[in-house]
Specification:
The complex is a heterodimer of chains A (about 725) and B (about 375).
Chain A: H1 3-23, H2 30-43, H3 53-78, H4 81-97, H5 103-123, H6 127-156, E1 159-162, E2 165-169, H7 172-176, H8 184-207, E3 232-233, E4 238-239, E5 246-252, E6 265-271, E7 273-275, E8 278-280, E9 290-294, E10 298-303, H9 312-321, E11 323-329, E12 339-340, E13 342-349, E14 373-380, H10 386-391, H11 412-421, H12 428-442, E15 444-445, E16 448-449, H13 457-465, E17 467-468, H14 470-483, E18 488-495, E19 498-500, E20 505-509, E21 513-521, E22 527-531, H15 549-569, H16 573-607, H17 610-633, H18 647-661, H19 672-682, H20 687-701, H21 708-730
Parallel strand pairs in A: 15-17
Antiparallel strand pairs in A: 1-2, 3-8, 4-16, 5-11, 5-20, 6-12, 6-18, 7-8, 9-10, 10-13, 11-14, 13-14, 18-21, 19-20, 21-22
Helix pairs in contact in A: 1-5, 1-6, 2-4, 3-4, 4-5, 5-6, 6-8, 11-14, 12-14, 13-14, 18-20, 18-21, 19-20, 20-21
Chain B: H1 13-16, E1 28-32, H2 34-53, H3 56-80, E2 83-88, E3 93-94, E4 99-107, E5 114-123, E6 126-137, E7 142-149, E8 155-166, E9 173-188, E10 218-223, H4 235-241, E11 245-249, E12 256-261, H5 267-275, H6 280-305, E13 309-314, E14 317-322, H7 325-336, E15 355-360, E16 374-377
Parallel strand pairs in B: 3-9, 12-13, 12-15, 15-16
Antiparallel strand pairs in B: 1-9, 2-4, 4-7, 5-6, 5-8, 8-9, 10-11, 13-14
Helix pairs in contact in B: 2-3, 6-7
């Protein structure tokens, strides 16, 4: 790929990923997002020589000023500084993309891309941000590396020097068009670097201490979903739509999960008061009784229900007996927290604690949260056995009369029906079971609503319409039970969910919203027990969603989304501590395993010592061979080996030393042949022998000829030279 | 300041130039670029925002920024690894004249190319004003370029080493490594246009040129020219090379000239030069002395070019008579390193029967100058 093209592609990818990260969260109005996208694509071709940029610069300046003015005004009016700022960023990046002239403009585009990513971190906490972030990391590594090289070659130092003329600039355009600088290996190398950067980012992200105090957290606002509502109003007409948006993901112990497991009632809100076809909670309703334990990392609430307060040690013991659920709850219109059937302990990170605890009634748990919240619940899933419930008898606790409330508009025939269904039954449990059985047997389930008009809705459901959805069934059960003096309340929440086999969690969707009832059995062994009077044929097990490839792909995507929420969005101090503990434990167990392995090996080596010795010898041998082979392969790169001197060269060296001692040294710049010539010219003693020896030396050392006769001759010459020099030294001057 | 640089020949100069506590610094230097400073500021800002808001995506961005800086450090380190540099100055460098220093860089890594490398020569601890840039050095390959530089003064310069630097991959900072590799560059006196004076001595001057003299020291071989003595033909070398080559001897008698240059400076001027207390007067005196040395060097070159035997005399300095290119190098080297001395230092007497030229700085008065057949006031 041409250098300039590679740089442009990488830069546009970087900007593109940041742009999508910003707009995918919905913080920017769709019109502006679409316009920005089209403009960014068009800017690809908006460059010289096709366009003369300076002609348009005034227009862009005026446009930018207008955009700034509009943004300031809109921000002042709407007070949505973040949204307006994001839209202004869109304008700026488009303006910059249309005015790419110098290196500085590219640099500003990169800075704007980063700012878009920062804004996106608040406006788009979805999985799309994570995917865009991954793309941004890869593209930014390419873009910034290429930008650096481009600027270096454009701005600085590519100057060709020549001795005979002034330095001249190398033609930059030629290098920008070159395909040799940026090739596949370059992209592979920088891609590997990007991967390293990404992994390192993840590690740094996990390791950075979470000491956030959450002053300026911007919540996303609740989701308005079809299904769950924090209140029940019977009546109205139309068709209830099934919303597939995931509102809650729950990790639960294996024996309660699986595609064949029965649905679990995820309890959320409960109502004590019924009037004019509407359920509500009264201010006088019994409060949620609970004890609160605070620690630096976590808050733990213990719900008493109708029981006495428990010491902390007892709560710890209960934790091991109850069913644990780790729940990631998306923001809803309600601040209620959900938990399976009968939540007893609720634990959440200290950082999400609200400044003012809302009032809680009817054993509800509430926690103000503007974003996805992660908490843990321990629940009692199994109700007491029927015989215990039948035997339960006692006095109602104070305030529980609220659960017997019946409005005047409940018709006589409704009350008569209740008495008729429970005639002859003596225990509360049998009566409740009878009412439930009657409703399931005699009434049908439908999502098509019919308008009851002025008729009391429960009466309309029981005697005229004879079919309805879960809220009708639950309301009818509560009214009929209360009509025979059984304390009952209506509960809203979710039922079941879809078991995700890839990660082992239950994905609860908005369409899983459900209504049921709780009946109170006073006295020892009693308590609140779940009764679901909706016909079971319409209630799915956790295996919903099917096993087709689209369903599985959907579940796989949901797994990614869940992991994103779990490990990125909701990663907090407690998760961090748990992770460190886990990593520490893994290291400890690995160390123990290594230690034990070493001990075992030591014992084995002691018993069979020839084996390790042979292995060690083989390893050393293999390493030596490998080293030799590598030396052979990389011979041109490795350092040249020292030349071995031939025997004649060694003789010559000896003679040279002798000559030096006799006052005829050979300087470093003088070749042996030059020395011989000089000696001959001066008529030095033994000059002719030195000349002959020099020629033999050249032939042997540089001609690489091995000749035993020449060696003998060289030795003879050396002897002659030694004798001659000795004689000359002793002769009178 | 026109002072010979002979005192910089110590190869351990780079280490000695540092105070002891700075010798423990790591072998790499880091200096942030503008982009690097921006990234650091962004990191601080994003970190502050992350802690303040508890927004995990900001923590993710912070993680990326920090990783980016770490990756930049690791990659620049890998880029600088196993690079070796060889600097090759031209055979002769003249004061005041630009020359090209050839720089050859080799990447000894087996698989990885090095990108965006800068090489600077170091004089003491400071880099020279010129640096060489290499965009890409493939693995196992070498590349060469050169830089143009001018030494304004004669003398022996020691380039203590070189600095290899890179801003690769993201230009966040410039990482450099100083390598101690002393390289001596002898800067000979500047070349000036100077005419050969008319010979004044008849006995041993031009007239003696035709006399057959005793052969002097063997100097070397050269191509045969018309009129050369056949006895001087070196048959063996001629047979080997295929060209007729003759022996050349340093002729000590024919066309001999003695060039004297007065390198005496008044004590006050020398003290001022040593102390670095340069006044316009001192600078003028020193410039005159330098001019004299340049004239002497150029004169020697002119005489030697014409085939004369040249002897050099100065205070505390003497180059025996000789001829040919090698002798020109000897004289140039001696003049390049010629120190300023007091006028008490003895000046060799110029032989009266040999052609002699004494070059003296015009504005400098000094005692003990010998007589010469020609005196040049420059």
């Amino acid at each position: 790929m041409r250098f300039a093209a590679a740089h442009k592609v990488a830069s546009y990818l970087m900007v593109g990923f940041a742009y999508v990260a910003l707009i995918a969260g919905g913080g920017v109005s769709p019109l502006i997002a679409l316009g920005g996208s089209v403009a960014l694509v068009a800017s690809w071709w908006w460059e010289p020589p096709l366009i003369r940029l300076e002609r348009w610069s005034l227009l862009w300046t005026i446009g930018s000023l207008l955009a700034l003015g509009y943004s300031v005004m809109t921000a002042a009016v709407s007070a949505d500084f973040l949204g307006v700022g994001a839209e202004f960023l869109v304008w700026l990046i488009v303006a910059k993309a249309f005015n790419r002239r110098a290196a500085r403009d590219w640099q500003q585009m990169y800075l704007l891309a980063f700012l878009m990513l920062v804004a996106g971190s608040v406006l788009n906490p979805d999985l799309t941000y994570g995917l865009c972030f991954l793309g941004f990391v890869i593209a930014s590594t390419w873009a910034l590396t290429l930008f650096h090289l481009r600027r270096e070659m454009e701005d600085n130092l590519l100057v060709k020097h020549a001795a005979d003329r002034a330095p001249e600039r190398v033609e930059v355009r030629r290098i920008l068009d070159s395909r040799r600088i940026v090739n596949g290996r370059f992209f592979l190398g920088t891609g590997a670097l990007s991967f390293g950067v990404f992994v390192s980012s993840a590690l740094v992200f996990l390791a950075l201490p979470r000491v956030g105090i959450g002053f300026f957290v911007k919540g996303r606002g609740g989701l308005s979903l079809v299904g769950f509502t924090d209140g029940v109003k019977l009546g109205g007409h139309g068709v209830i739509k099934n919303d597939a948006t995931v509102v809650m993901r729950v990790e639960i112990a294996g024996r309660y999960g699986g595609r064949d497991a029965p649905g679990i009632h995820w309890r959320g809100v409960a109502f004590d008061h019924y009037e004019h076809g509407q359920w509500s909670r009264m201010a006088t309703a019994p409060r949620t009784l609970q004890t609160l334990e605070e620690s630096p990392a976590r808050d733990r609430r213990f719900l008493l229900w109708d029981g006495p307060a428990q010491p902390s040690g007892e709560i710890d013991r209960l934790e091991t007996e109850l069913v644990k659920q780790s729940i990631w709850l998306e923001p809803l219109d309600s601040d209620a927290l959900f938990g399976a059937t009968a939540p007893r302990i609720v634990e959440y990170a200290h950082t999400v604690r609200p400044r003012k605890q809302p009032l809680e009634h009817n054993d509800e748990i509430r926690l103000d949260h503007g974003a996805t919240v992660h908490y843990t619940v321990w629940s009692e899933l199994q109700p007491p056995p029927p015989e215990v419930l039948r035997a339960a008898a006692g006095k109602l606790p104070a305030g529980y009369e609220a659960y017997l409330q019946l409005p005047r508009e409940i018709t006589r025939r409704t009350r008569d029906l209740a008495r008729q269904i429970t005639a002859g039954l003596t225990t509360e449990y049998d009566k409740a079971e009878a009412i439930k059985a009657w409703l399931i047997k005699n009434l049908g389930y439908t999502l098509v609503l019919a308008e009851p008009g002025t008729q009391e809705p429960v009466d309309f459901f029981l005697f005229d319409r004879k079919k309805g959805h879960c809220e009708y069934f639950a309301s009818a059960f509560a009214i009929l039970a209360r009509a025979v003096a059984i304390p009952t309340r209506q509960v809203n929440g979710f039922l079941g969910g879809e078991w995700n086999e890839y990660q082992g969690y239950v994905a609860v969707r908005a369409g899983d919203a459900h209504s049921w009832d709780e009946v109170y059995f006073p006295g020892p062994g009693g308590g609140w027990v779940t009764f679901d009077p909706t016909p079971p044929g319409d209630i799915d097990e956790l295996g919903r969603g099917g096993a087709g490839w689209t369903a599985r792909l959907g579940r796989m995507l949901d797994t990614l989304r869940f992991q994103w929420n779990k490990w990125v969005i909701e990663y907090d101090l407690a998760s961090q501590l748990a992770l460190f503990k886990q990593v520490g434990g893994a290291f400890q167990s690995a160390a123990t395993a290594v230690k034990q392995g070493a001990l075992r090996m030591k014992d084995a080596a002691r018993d069979h010592w020839p084996v390790p010795v042979t292995m060690a010898v083989l390893i050393v041998l293999a390493l030596t061979l490998r080293r030799r082979r590598r030396r052979g392969v990389h011979a041109p790169v490795s350092r040249p080996r020292r030349r071995e001197r031939s025997p004649i060269a060694q003789i010559y060296d000896e003679v040279a030393r002798l000559l030096a001692r006799s006052g005829v040294p050979r300087d470093a710049a003088v070749t042996p042949r030059e020395l011989a010539l000089r000696m001959a010219a001066r008529g030095d003693p033994a000059a002719s022998q030195v000349g002959e020896l020099t020629e033999l030396y050249y032939t042997a050392e540089w001609g690489r000829r091995s000749d035993p006769a020449a060696e003998q001759r060289a030795q003879a010459l050396a002897h002659e030279i030694r004798t001659t020099l000795h004689a000359a030294h002793r002769a009178p001057r | 300041m026109p002072v010979p640089m002979t005192d910089e020949a110590d190869p351990r100069l780079l280490a000695r130039a540092l105070p002891w506590w700075r010798r423990f610094r790591p072998p790499r230097r880091l200096s942030f670029t503008r982009e690097g400073r921006i990234i650091v500021i962004l990191s601080v800002g994003v970190g502050f925002a992350a802690i303040n808001t508890g927004n995990n995506l900001l923590y993710l961005l912070l993680g990326w920024l920090l990783s980016f800086i770490i990756a930049s450090g690791i990659l620049s380190e890998m880029t600088l690894k196993r690079l070796s540099v060889d600097r090759r100055p031209p055979p002769r460098v003249f004061a005041g004249e630009p020359f090209l220093m050839e720089v050859v860089i080799r990447n000894d890594k087996r698989a990885r190319a090095s990108f965006s490398i800068e090489v600077e020569d170091l004089m003491g601890r400071a880099p020279l004003d010129k640096r060489c840039y290499f965009l890409k050095i493939p693995a196992g390959k070498s590349q060469r370029t050169s830089y143009r530089h001018t030494f304004v003064r004669r003398g022996l310069y020691t380039l203590t080493g070189y600095r290899i630097a890179t801003k690769f991959p993201f230009a966040l900072f410039r990482k450099s490594r100083d390598v101690l590799a002393p390289l001596e560059v002898l800067v000979v006196p500047a070349r000036v246009a100077v005419p050969r004076p008319v010979p004044r001595t008849e006995v041993r001057g031009e007239l003696t040129a035709s006399r057959t003299g005793r052969r002097g020291e063997f100097f070397g071989l050269r191509e045969h020219r018309a009129g050369d003595d056949r006895r001087d033909v070196h048959w063996r070398s001629s047979a080997r090379s295929g060209r007729l080559l003759v022996r050349e001897y340093e002729d000590e008698h024919a066309r001999r000239v003695v060039i004297g240059v007065d390198n005496a400076l008044p004590d006050a001027v020398r003290d001022a030069v040593t102390d670095g207390a340069l006044t316009p007067v001192v600078e003028a005196v020193v410039a005159a002395a330098e001019r004299a040395i340049s004239v002497a060097a150029s004169l020697a070159a002119v005489y030697l070019e014409a085939g004369w035997t040249v002897e050099l005399c100065a205070r505390d300095c003497h180059v025996p008579a000789g001829a040919g290119r090698m002798h020109e190098v000897r004289i140039a080297r001696a003049l390049a390193l010629l120190p300023y001395v007091s006028d008490q230092a003895p000046f060799a007497v110029l032989p009266p029967r040999v052609e002699s030229v004494l070059v003296v700085p015009r504005t400098v008065a000094a005692a003990g100058r010998p007589g010469a057949s020609t005196v040049m006031n420059v």
